[in-house]
């Protein structure tokens, strides 16, 4: 793998780590439940992107499957949390 690609992967992972730290701060200090739900959704998204970057770096397809599962569970949990925040119950 070339030096440019390795540097780009390292830079991307560093940016995602910094963004995830800022999202965790919002998750902890969020003034409302809606802020916490959106921060948790963004944290799932960052985890998916990190898995995709690692897949490119390690040249392994297993990471793509893990990223797909993270995206699936992130969407379902975000929908359930949004419904709970709006109505106070998940199952009607």
Automatic annotation (TrEMBL):
Keywords for the protein's UniProt record, in alphabetical order: Antiport, Cell membrane, Ion transport, Membrane, Transmembrane, Transmembrane helix, Transport
UniProt xrefs under Pfam families: MrpF_PhaF
Membrane topology summary: Multi-pass membrane protein
Parts of the chain that traverse the membrane: 6-25, 37-56, 62-86
GO molecular function (one): sodium:proton antiporter activity
Compartment(s): Cell membrane
InterPro entries: MrpF/PhaF-like
This protein's GO CC annotations: plasma membrane
Statement: the UniProt record of this protein carries the keyword NAD: no
Tree of life domain: Bacteria
PANTHER family according to UniProt: NA(+)/H(+) ANTIPORTER SUBUNIT F1 (PTHR34702), NA(+)_H(+) ANTIPORTER SUBUNIT F (PTHR34702:SF1)
Family membership noted in the UniProt record: Belongs to the CPA3 antiporters (TC 2.A.63) subunit F family.
Name of this chain's protein: Multisubunit potassium/proton antiporter PhaF subunit
Origin species: Panacagrimonas perspica
Lineage of producing organism: Bacteria, Pseudomonadati, Pseudomonadota, Gammaproteobacteria, Nevskiales
């Amino acid at each position: 793998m070339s030096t440019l690609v390795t540097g780009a992967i390292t830079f991307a992972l560093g940016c995602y780590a910094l963004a995830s730290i800022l999202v965790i701060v919002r998750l902890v200090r969020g003034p409302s439940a809606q802020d916490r739900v959106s921060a948790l959704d963004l944290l799932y998204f960052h985890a998916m992107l990190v898995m995709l970057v690692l897949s490119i770096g390690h040249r392994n397809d297993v990471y793509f499957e893990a990223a797909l599962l993270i995206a699936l569970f992130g969407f379902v949990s975000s929908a359930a949390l949004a419904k709970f925040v709006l109505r106070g119950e998940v199952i009607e």
